Amino acid sequence: MVVININGDASSPAFLPGSKQYEWLDETLNASTAPWIFIFGHVGIYTSGYHGQWSAEPKQVAPLLEKYASAGKRIIYFCGDDHSFEHLYKDGVHYVRPGCGRNSNYKQQTGLIDAQYSMFYRQISCFSTLDMAADAQKVLLTAYDSVGNQFYQYEFKHEGELIQPNITFTAPMSDIEVGDSVMLRYFPFDPQQNSTISFYYTDKAETTGGKLIQANVPAQVTAPKQICWYTRDVYPKGDYYVYAVIRNSSVADTTLLPTSITLVEDTIAPPAPTDLKGGVQDGKMALTWHNPNRLVTVNTPLADFSDDMAGFEVANEEAATAQLTLESGALRVDFDVDQAWATTSADYVFEQPTASTSTPTLSFRMRGNGTSSALRIVVKNMANNHEDWWYTEQVTLSSTDWKDYTIDIPSLSAFDWYSNSDTKCRLDGMLRICFCVSPSAPAAGTFWLDDILLTGQITPAKDYTQTVIIRREDRFADDPTDGVEVYRGNAESCVDNEADLQEVYYYAAFAADDRNNWSAAAESAQWITTDTALPDQPLKKLQNKIWQDQQLLILKDDIYYNVLGTTIKR
Questions:
Q1: What pLDDT, on the 0 to 100 scale, is given for residue 29?
Q2: Is the pLDDT of residue 540 over 90?
Q3: Which pLDDT band, with edges at 50, 70 and 90, does 108 fall under?
Q4: Cα(23)–Cα(17) distance, integer angstroms
Q5: Which tens digit of pLDDT belongs to each residue from 307-340?
Q6: pLDDT at 148 over 80
């Protein structure tokens, strides 16, 4: 057993090649004749956990361990730091994080650069045991949850150990109900980099006889570590299980998703049609509307600072501070940075990871203090069960006048020092939006923020199939069977050939999805006649009733009257 100080921070010497401790470890490993060498350190040399982003220095120890592993010595490295369980393998060396032992798991955990070496990962409070065979030819690792239930076991062999590919699911990790689809997240372990993965579902908690979800997904770390299982057309509804088979030319490994997925029927109706309008064209009643499957602009306000600073907090590093105050309906940020590249920020914090896929654009107003300092906009999100950071520095504090800014979130850049697992900023789990100051030299100043919102375009109802227009003479229809059907289909206009232009009609529009779920009636569910819609013939010199601007009008001899006989327009 070897214990090393591998932190390499200000309180301890750096563990680098050429250092006293590094040389001591080299000599110790070279001299050892033990059948197994257990090395213990605080931080992970390899970890797909949150701290993997800062593991560049510990990784410098890895070539030393791999050198002696290739010489036939059996080395297992144990660590903590990331509060979870993980077993990794690279170039003859096993790396084990046996558990945090208490309920303090990090929420930001998997999917960083070392995920390709991970044989098994679980975000869980747990503990582990090691049992060695009497002849020292085998060592059995067993992991238990906090109440003693076993969830992982691995047998290390001194000779003839076969390192085979496997797959670990990371989401979902608890029972869920699903209507249309569910995202299956995972990461593979593929030591030979030649495996593929196939996913299956079954109505039993078994890993045989399932129906295919997706086949032959590359297991290499560059491949997406999530797939979408579209469940809308899976029948009968009920409880299902998912398993994955990872295989190469010689071996295969099967893993069951550790939770059931309950499929339920879609009973949610699409939104109602919008902008229902009507008028007389060519002597007939013509109607137009917008179906709920067209792109519409949506805004999600985050803060306007009219009353408070709700959602905002200060985030400081050492040697940097900021103070937030309300000033004239805006957020004032006073910052003081005493050291180059120290960071302070005003952060908007979401109450929970928030999907922003429908609103991919960040808009805000800002004015600065007239300096050339850059304001760094950082988006922190939850992707593949870990926290990723993305940024832009295109905003400066040079303008003392209010200016409008628009940031395309998917175009943000990854930090060079931060090992993001994705090639672009994901939008499925927003955690924070940070307005940061991180100058290259000590600086102090002020900037102001206002009208912060997320904007974008969405399709309100992807499962929309048809619209029905219903006509009545006494009131608006309550449902799509409550009156005379004028139109059925997915167009956005129709002509009511049966309408009598001497009558007042009430038109209601309803939308349906492919499961025959019907919306409520469209708002403003009546036809509206405008001046431009009135033909020269045949209405001239005739008396006609017109529904316009929520009131009944009488057209007689080119003059409009209300029901009291007052002239409205000529």
A1: 97
A2: no
A3: very low
A4: 7
A5: 889 899 998 877 888 999 999 999 999 999 988 8
A6: yes
Q: What is the pLDDT of residues 197-233, one digit of tens each?
A: 999 999 999 999 999 999 998 887 655 577 889 999 9
Domain covering 168-263, topology: Immunoglobulin-like (2.60.40)
Residue 32, pLDDT > 70, answer yes
Fold agreement (2-157, 298-458): no
For 2-157, the fitting CATH number among 3.60.21.10, 3.40.50.300, 3.90.380.10, 3.30.470.30 is 3.60.21.10
**Order of all β-strands in the sheet with 544-548:** 544-548, 551-556, 559-562, 567-569
Residue 254: pLDDT band (50, 70, 90) is very high
User: What pLDDT is stored for residue 277 in this prediction?
Assistant: 86
What is the C-alpha separation between 307 and 304, in angstroms, rounded? 8
Q: Which residues contact 482 (CB under 8 A, 6 or more apart)?
A: 470, 472
* CA neighbor of 544 nearest in space, from 512, 495, 500, 485: 500
Q: Could you tell me which residues are beta bridge partners of residue 296?
A: 458
More confident residue, 146 or 352: 146
pLDDT digits (tens, 9 = 90+) for 473-516: 888 899 999 999 999 999 999 999 988 777 788 899 999 999 99
d(CA 324, CA 361) in angstroms, rounded, equals 24
Write a three-state SS string for 455-505: EEEECCCCCEEEEEEEEECCCCCCCCCCCEEEEEECCCEEEECCCCCCCCC
**pLDDT per position as a tens digit, 57-105:** 788 899 999 999 999 999 999 998 888 899 999 999 999 999 876 655 5
Question: CA 467, CA 480: separation in Å to the nearest integer?
Answer: 9
Q: How far is 116 from 376, CA to CA, in rounded Å?
A: 31
Go through the chain and tell me how many residues it has: 570
Whether domain 298-458 has CATH 3.40.50.10170: the reply is no
Sequence ranges of the domains in the chain: 2-157, 168-263, 274-294+461-569, 298-458
Q: Are strands 2-3 and 37-40 parallel, antiparallel or unpaired?
A: parallel
Beta-carbon contacts of 205 under 8 Å, excluding residues fewer than 6 positions away, are 241, 256, 260
Record: fold of 274-294+461-569: Immunoglobulin-like (2.60.40)
Whether the per-residue pLDDT at 543 is higher than 50: the answer is no
Are 142 and 81 a contacting pair, CB within 8 Å?
no
Residue 27 gets the label, from left (phi > 0), alpha (psi -120 to 50) or beta, of alpha
CB 58 within 8 A of CB 43: yes
Distances (CA, A) of 132 to 141, 158, 344: 9, 11, 51
What is the helix (H) or strand (E) element at residue 25, kind and residue range? helix 20-31
- Cα 118 from Cα 168, distance rounded (Å): 9
Residue 61: phi, psi to the nearest 5?
-80, -25
- Any residues with CB less than 8 A from the CB of 54 and at least 6 apart, and which? none
Strand, helix or coil for residue 6: coil
- Cα separation of 212 and 227, whole Å? 13
